[in-house]
Amino acid sequence: MRVTQSLEQTQFISALDSLESSLSTNQNHISTGLSFTTPSENPAAAGSVNALNQVLSQSQQFSTNAGSAHTTLETESNALSQLQNQLQSVYSLALEANSGTESAQNLSAIGAQVTQIQNTLLSIANTQDGNGNYIFGGYATQAAPFALTPTGASYSGDNGQAQVQIAAGETVVTGDSGNAVFNAIKNGNGTFTVTPGVNNGGSVVVGNTSVTDASTYDGKPYTISFTGASAYSINTVPPTTGTYTSGQAIAFDGVQISLSGTPATGDTLAVAPSTNQSIFTTVQNLVTALQAPTNTPVGKTQLSNSIASALNNLNQAITNTGNIEALVGGRLNAITTAQSVATSQQIQLQSSISSLQSLDYAGAITQLDSENTQLSAAMQAYTLTQGLSLFKYIQ
Question: What is the rounded CA–CA span in Å between residue 254 and residue 213?
C-alpha cells in the first residue's frame, strides 16, 4: 500500500483524537470523582449502580414518609396527653362535687370550671398539625370536625385512618378519627348502665356495678322495681324478687349492682347494655347536673346519681384515651425501628454504589500524567516528521 503524506496525517490525527478523548474522559473522572459517568464506559457496573440507586431512592422515600408520619403522630400523642389531663381534672371536680357538703354556690362554681374545661376539650378535638390539617377529622382534614351543641358536640368528620408506607411491605396508621377518640366510648361500666327513673321519689343512689358471671349475663334490658322500702322485683323470666337493704348489692343474671339509700314505692332502675357516648355529652351532662337545684332531698339524690354516672363515664373515657395513647406509642416505636433499619440500609447501599463507581484518584492522576506526556511527545514527533518531507529538498 502506498503511504502518502495525507494518509500519515489522517492516521496521526485519528491517534491524536483518541488520545485527547481519553485525556478528556480521565479529566472528567477526576473532576467528578467517578470511575465512569456514562453506562458505555462500564456497562456491568453501571447496571448494578442503577439497580442500587433505585433501591436507595425507594428507601429514602420510605424515610421521608416515616418522618412525616412521626411528626403527625407526635402531634396526636401530645393532644391525647392533654386530653387525658383534662379528663382527670373533670374527674377530680366531680369527686369534689360529690362530697355532699358543697353549697349550691360551690356546685355552680365547679360547674363553671367544668364548662371551661369543655371548651379546652373542644380545642384539643380540633387540633391541627403543622400543615393546618385537623388530625381528628378522619379523611376530612380541612374543616374543624367538632362544634359544641347544647347536649355535647357534633362531629362532621369521618372514620377514616390515613396510612403511609414506611418500609417494604410495612405501613403505619398516622391518625385516629374523632369518633374513635371522643365519641365511641361505652357508657356505664362499659358493659351495662343503671339509670334511676326520672320520677323516682326516694333516695336510692347507684354505686358500683359489675358483671360477676359473663356466662349468665345475656345483655338484655331489665327494670328493677321497688314495691316498698325493702322489697324489689326484676322482670326476668321468671321474675326475680328480693329484699332490699341499703348498702348491699342486688345480683341477678350475672350482674351485681350496689345501692344505698331508701327507695319510695314505685321507684325504678333501668338496667341496659352500654352504648357509645361522647366525651362532650358526658361533660355537658355533668355541667347540667351541677347547675340543677339541690334544695330538696330528691334534687340531692338526682345530683348524686348524675355525678356517679359521670364518674363511670369519665373513667371509660380515660381508659379509652389511654388505650389510644398506647396504640400511638406503638406506631411511633414502629416508625423509629423502620427509620433505624432504613438508615443502616442506606449507608450500606451508598457504600456499595461507591465501591462500584468511586474513582481511584492515584491511578487516575498517574494515567492523566502519562496521557499528557504521550500527547506532548506525539505533537513533537509529528512536527519533526513533517520537517523530513522530501519535497523540502527538491530544488
Answer: 4
Backbone phi and psi for residue 156, each to the nearest 5 degrees, phi listed first: -110, 5
Residue 261: burial class (beta carbons within 10 Å; 0-12, 13-18, 19+): middle
User: Which of 24-33, 37-46, 171-180 holds the top average pLDDT?
Assistant: 171-180
User: pLDDT at residue 19 above 80?
Assistant: no
pLDDT value at 126 more than 60? yes
Helices (H), the chain: 5-32, 43-97, 104-125, 178, 279-291, 297-357, 361-387
User: Is 101's pLDDT higher than 60?
Assistant: yes
| Distance (Å, whole) CA 30 – CA 191 | 75
Residue limits of CATH 1.20.1330.10 in the chain: 34-190+276-358
Architecture of domain 34-190+276-358: Up-down Bundle (1.20)
Q: Name the residue with cell 365519641.
A: 183
Residue 78 makes CB contacts below 8 A (sequence gap 6+) with none
What's the half-sphere exposure (Cβ side, CA atoms, 13 Å) at 181?
Answer: 35
Cα dihedral angle (324, 329, 331, 332), rounded to 10 degrees?
140
Q: Three-state SS across 77-130?
A: HHHHHHHHHHHHHHHHHHHHHCCCCCCHHHHHHHHHHHHHHHHHHHHHHCCECC
